[in-house]
Structures are given as structure tokens and as C-alpha cells.
Amino acid sequence: MRDFTAVFEALEHCQTTASQFLKTVLTHWQYDNQPIVQDLLLHSTEVLGTFLAHPIKAQDFMQHCAELILDLYLKEICHAASKDGGWHFGASTATTQQLEDFNLDDMAWDLKAHAPRLWTFVGLLMQCDEKQKGGSGKKDVDGDVVMDKQSMDMEQDYWNEVDEVDFEEFIEGLTAEGGPSIPMKDHKKWQVVIKTIKKIVIISIIMQSVNWKLNTLQTILGLFLQSAHTLQKVIDTLVQAGISISTDAINAAVCSLSIKSQTLL
Predict the structure, then answer these.
(1) What residues are paired with 139 via a beta bridge?
(2) Terminus of the chain with fewer CB atoms < 10 Å: N or C?
(3) The predicted structure's pLDDT at residue 110
(4) What is the DSSP string of 201-264?
(5) Cα distance between the two ends of the chain
(6) pLDDT (tens digit, 9 = 90+) per residue, 38-55?
(7) ∠ CA 255-260-262 to the nearest 5 degrees?
(8) What residue ranges of the chain have pLDDT lower than 70?
């Protein structure tokens, strides 16, 4: 190990601490071209890893990192749930054009664009079937599956094919009598569709809890539930879960659609 006595003495001579020195050189633009700053930025992930591995402050540092990540996710959720996100839907003013324009594929790509880290995180939480994904099957001390590089690469390959998937075709297959009939060559794409739908539903529920006006998916599902003569208790349960709009809102949407349809005729 190298002798850093001279470095310690230099800091003491300047009457500054190591933390003060680092914060100063990293936050003032006049030091941007200094070799030490360039080196810190180049090896920043290694430095963070060292803090995480430190036996004394590891837990505190991990907690702080978790808080930063949670704040990042919250900002993404708020951005996606804002009016600019494009998914606000007024049930009482619903039009047939809005229903016709609704597309799960568009919603998936919009959510991925507005909340990319949250989208990835939800996907990682869902990836627990190592047999399906070809994972190593290794588990940590808590018995949780550890994803290897091969699993991550296969997951990326799946998402590279999303733009080739016809969502409507697969959803029609799901609701067809006798259940879906899936050709073996389409099995991987089918897995992508199912996983994407789950991610859309999960993130939509989260976003609606932030902004109740974001209920496009909930309105579509509510209208579907009523058209399928779903029991009132079932709809009420799904409303509480954030998956559907209320019966009153569904009826308001139906009235709006009827009035606007008659006007067009």
C-alpha cells in the first residue's frame, strides 16, 4: 500500500478535510479540468462501490442511495402522471375517437419514455422465473434468485422485439373461446406481451395514486367490465385496487359516448 502521509499533511496544511476537498473540487467548474477531478469522475462507480462495501458506514450509505433512487422514481412518476404525459381521461366527456385511439403499444412506449428507470425497475421485480428466462438459478443468502448476465441479455433481446408485436392480435387471442392458441415460434413474443401488459397495469395504478385524473387504462377496463356484465362487487373491488373507474364514472362515460354518437349520426 502506498504512503499517503504527504496527502494527509497537505490537507491539514490547507486546513480542510477530505470531504470538504472532494465536495469543493466536484462542485466548482474551475476545477473541472484538474486531473484529480477527471480521475474521480472516471472511477466514480468504483468509489461508490467502496463506500457501499465499507464495514462501518455501508448501511447508512445504502440508505442514502435508496432515498436518492426513490426520489428519482417519484419524479418520473409525477412527470408521467402529469397532463403533459398525455394519459389524462375525463370519463364524463369521453368520445368514441378517444376509445378508438387508445393503444396499449403506444402506452407502453410512452411510459417507457417518461419513466424509463421505473419501467426497468418494475420489469426487474417481475423477473423471478429463472427457468423461463434461462437464469443460472443461483440464490443469495436470503434464498432470492440472482440474475446473471445471460438472463439480463435475454431480457434485453425480448424488449428489442416489442415493436414487432401486434398487441390487439394477442389480446384477441387471450379472450377467444377455448383460450389462446400460441404457435411455438410466437411463444417468446407472447411472453413479451403478457409482461408488458402487467407492467402497464402496475405503473398505471401507481400513477393514478399520484394523480387521479390519470385514468385512461382504468376507464377502458371499466367500460369493458360493464360490457361483460361484471358483478358490481367485482368492479368495486377493482376500483379500490386502482384498476378500474367507479360504476358512476363508467355510467357517465357511457352517457357521454351515447350522446356524442347520436350527435355524429
Answers:
(1) 145
(2) N
(3) 86
(4) HHHHHHHHHH-TT--HHHHHHHHHHHHTT--HHHHHHHHHTTSS--HHHHHHHHHHHHHHHHHH
(5) 84
(6) 999 999 999 988 888 888
(7) 95
(8) 85-86, 91, 128-188, 260-265
| Residue type at 30 in one-letter notation | Q
Angle value at C-alpha 9, between 5 and 12, nearest 5 degrees: 145
Q: Can you read off the three cell numbers belonging to residue 11?
A: 490537507
| Cell numbers linked to 211 | 394523480
pLDDT of residue 150: 53
Using alpha carbons, list the distances in angstroms from residue 120 to 80, 140, 160, 168, 229.
15, 22, 14, 23, 36
Q: What is the DSSP string of 133-189?
A: HT----B-TTSPBPP-HHHHHHHHHHHTTGGG--HHHHHHHHHSTT-----GGGHHH
C-alpha cell at 242: 386502482
